[in-house]
Design goal:
This is Putative negative regulator of RcsB-dependent stress response. The chain is mostly helical. The chain has helices spanning 2-46, 52-59, 65-71, 76-81, 86-102, 106-113, 123-137, 140-153, 158-172.
Length: 173
């Protein structure tokens, strides 16, 4: 009798574990399909097939929301608030700075860029943007310093090549 009860408990536990694993896998697949549908909605919005309002409601609170904000109207404060990953946040800080630079709000752009340091993956591109801002402000020396830094610290990169071209252009004038 004891052997049968132990066997029954063992079978019950095995079924419980199998049910939990199956439930977890089902939830994971469901979540993947949901995110795929959201990604498709964002894609259709970019193609002009869906309206902003209907997509924004669906993607709010998902990993696609910061990207959606970035491609819509450049709502940088909302965009930055919705990003949790520190590396991704640095990328959006750079985008927000570029939008400010485009609107000739140079000091604000430089203020935001001050949050990106040498340890950040996008330091070279943020530094290039800083140099462009200095150049636009008429601070030739500040721009030259940053272009030279990029050439020295990141040789044989896109950023060094752009910097070299800008350096020649500035020094030639």
């Amino acid at each position: 009798m004891i052997l049968n009860r132990d066997l029954l408990i063992g079978i019950l536990l095995a079924l419980l574990v199998a049910g939990a694993v199956g439930g977890f896998n089902y939830w994971k697949k469901y979540e993947e399909k949901r995110l795929d549908r959201l990604a498709e909605m964002v894609y259709l919005y970019e193609k002009g097939e869906l309206k902003r309002e209907e997509v924004e409601q669906k993607v709010k609170g998902t990993p696609y929301y910061p990207y959606f904000l970035a491609i819509t109207s450049g709502e940088t404060s909302q965009m930055l608030d919705s990003v949790e990953d520190p590396d991704v946040k640095k990328l959006f800080i750079e985008k927000a700075s570029f939008l400010l630079y485009s609107k000739k709000k140079y000091e604000e752009a430089l203020g935001k860029l001050s949050h990106i340091g040498k340890e950040d993956f996008n330091y070279p591109s943020a530094t290039l943007l800083r140099a462009f801002i200095y150049e636009a402000k008429g601070d030739k020396e500040g721009a030259l310093k940053l272009y030279k830094e990029l050439i020295k610290d990141y040789p044989d990169t896109y950023f060094a090549r752009i910097s070299r071209a800008q350096l020649y252009s500035l020094e030639g004038n």
